[in-house]
Design brief:
This is Peptide/nickel transport system substrate-binding protein. With 585 residues, this protein is of the alpha+beta class. It is built from 15 helices and 21 strands. The N terminus is likely disordered.
């Protein structure tokens, strides 16, 4: 068991100074040879930086700084950044947001953007690319949309005991062919009028594969659940993307070759793509140095990592805010933390600015505290709901006063006692393998010791992130959500009382009502207002403390072209993997 200790400060000044020397807002570097192409233009041209002509052929090995437990991101236990990355080369996404938050439809599957053909009830029409297929001779069609409806419905009558990461299809009433065979029409109930209808994830796993397993998923909810389990446990032989899997071991590696049946407009030039799991970014950098790995877009980067990268010839890198926002969540079913007064005091005692100064600011000197759960600080819809509450301020006096007013007390040893006289203790969980996560855990424990709470620090292997969250095996936990520029599904996924990914099991009827209202609001401006009411309510519940949009890195050897990061995509650099290649000489 690990106990609180205040982190040493000796290395922090070196890291902060280094980042400011590298350029303040972002850290950017490249190999020592003059003229090496790199990421120096990503700040001004994020959509097309590091672009160029590709050679015909070549292989890329890409490092992933974590592991995955299955192949089905429909499921809450597998909806992690690592699963989203390893499935990116074959997954049937509707489209992607680019670095300017503009939505780009997936032309391998669709002939154009979805169209709203009726307001009440809301009906959305999708026109398929006539060549859209699963890479095995089977076309993408009506059954595939229906399969995803059932899988993501959250309805036990359609998928028995299924736990979708988000019940994005909960309001679907029917899915039918349109006026022509290439058109699919989805009809929603009167409880759905989302302003983000265009971005719904309407495809996932291929229905014909479930049929081939003898599963009557259309009529038997248990068979539908069995199909979801099959897709979780089985390495895919199909692909709707630019690559298909030749060989893979769950949680370890996936080797891809071009999908010859892919119907996308971008020509694939690579002969082979390997995605390989590593237990740390340090290991990935070592492999890049040795020439066995070509790049990575890790979810975290430390000052020590930047030092490693700066000292290396032939490694290009860029550090900036990513899609991941780090936060601390509370399990409201804990015997002590079920009390919102205690939860509020806990968050008031935690000093977020100190956490940032001792971790994230070592890498990105202007890393700023995140002050809204749904909107980035530079968003036009941003409102600060946190500062006025004192949450995240490290104000132990405010926390102690609130506890005293609620009949908490302290014993002769200074330990916090609840109103019944029980000593308040709980655990704090986090993924190991990161110095910054350890530093943050130490600081949280130190802050809470100042109000008399003994916190047990309990790290877990990074590969166990999904199961740890899915089983709510924590009292407090630090992790990151990777999100897109959308709020409707995010709000439901994070906080709806019936959402499997509401890992701390918050149950707030007023919050649920706001989330339902958001799904019924077709006007984006009005939806943004409701979004801010939701964020404010989450603050009042003292359920989740945002920390920062985590600085992330894109790292690649100079030979890689069209490889760049994308904060707006959950797949990060893999969002445009079809365009990747070896730079033409």
């Amino acid at each position: 068991m690990l106990r609180a200790r205040r982190p040493a400060t000796g290395a922090i000044g070196i890291g902060a100074a280094l980042v400011m020397i590298l350029g303040g807002t972002t850290a950017c570097g490249q190999g020592q040879a003059a003229g090496d192409p790199g990421f120096e233009d990503c700040a001004t041209d994020p959509v097309s930086c590091n672009s160029g002509e590709r050679a015909d052929g070549g292989e890329i090995t890409w490092g992933i700084d974590g592991s995955w437990t299955g192949w089905n991101p429909n499921l809450s236990a597998e909806y992690t950044v690592y699963t989203l990355q390893v499935t990116a080369p074959y997954w049937p996404a509707v489209g992607q947001f680019d670095q300017n938050a503009d939505f780009v439809v997936n032309d391998a599957i669709f002939a154009g953007e979805p169209e709203l053909i009726n307001q009440t009830p809301m009906q959305v029409e999708y026109t398929l690319n006539p060549d859209a297929n699963w890479g095995d001779g089977n076309p993408i069609g009506l059954d595939d949309f229906t399969y995803t409806w059932y899988a993501r419905s959250g309805n036990g009558d359609l998928c028995k005991d299924c736990t979708p990461a988000a019940a994005t299809a909960a309001d679907v009433v029917s899915i039918e062919e349109g006026a022509t065979a290439d058109k699919i029409v989805i009809t929603y109930n009167d409880e759905y009028a989302s302003s983000e209808w265009k971005y719904e994830p309407v495809l996932s796993n291929p229905a014909h594969i479930a049929d081939e397993q003898g599963l009557d998923w259309k009529h038997d909810p248990a068979d539908m659940a069995a199909a979801e389990t099959y897709f979780s446990q089985t390495v895919p032989t199909w692909s709707a993307g630019p690559f298909k899997i030749d060989d893979a071991a769950t949680g370890d590696y996936a080797i891809f070759t071009p999908n010859e049946d892919w119907a996308g407009s971008t020509e694939v030039t690579l002969d082979k793509l390997t995605l390989k799991s590593f237990d740390s970014l340090e290991s990935i950098i070592t492999e890049i140095r040795q020439g066995t790995v070509d790049g990575s877009s890790p979810g975290n980067i430390s000052a020590e990592n930047v030092v490693q990268l700066v000292s290396e010839d032939g490694i290009n890198f860029n550090v900036d805010r990513g899609p991941l926002w780090h936060h601390i969540d509370i399990n409201v079913n804990n015997e002590f933390l079920s009390d919102p007064v205690l939860r509020t005091a806990v968050f008031q005692a935690i000093d977020v600015e100190e956490i940032i100064a001792r971790t994230y600011a070592n890498v990105q000197s202007d890393a700023a505290r995140k002050l809204n759960h749904l909107y980035r600080n530079d968003s036009a819809n941003f409102q600060d709901h946190l500062t006025a509450t004192g949450q995240g301020a490290g104000d132990t006096e405010q926390a102690r006063d609130a506890l005293l007013d609620a009949d908490y007390s302290w014993n002769s040893d200074g330990k916090l006692l609840d109103p019944e006289g029980e000593q308040v203790t709980f655990n704090y969980r986090y993924a190991d393998g990161s110095d910054d996560r350890q530093t943050m855990a130490d600081l949280v424990a130190f802050n809470l010791a100042d109000i008399g709470i003994d916190v047990e620090l309990k790290p877990f292997p990074a590969a166990d992130l999904g199961p740890t969250l899915d089983q709510s095996n924590f009292d407090m936990v630090a992790f990151g959500w990777t999100s897109q520029p959308v709020i409707v599904n995010s709000a439901r996924q994070f906080w709806a009382s019936d959402a499997p990914t509401n890992y701390g099991r918050l149950d707030d009827p007023e919050l649920d009502a706001l989330i339902d209202a958001l799904a019924l609001e077709p006007d984006p401006a009005e939806a943004a207002e409701i979004g801010n009411q939701i964020a404010e309510r989450v603050v009042q519940d003292a359920y989740q403390l945002p920390l920062v949009n985590t600085p992330v890195a894109i790292i690649a050897t100079p030979e890689l072209v069209n490889v760049r990061d994308n904060w707006a995509s959950q797949q990060r650099a893999l969002y445009n993997v079809a365009e990747w290649g070896i730079r033409a000489e």
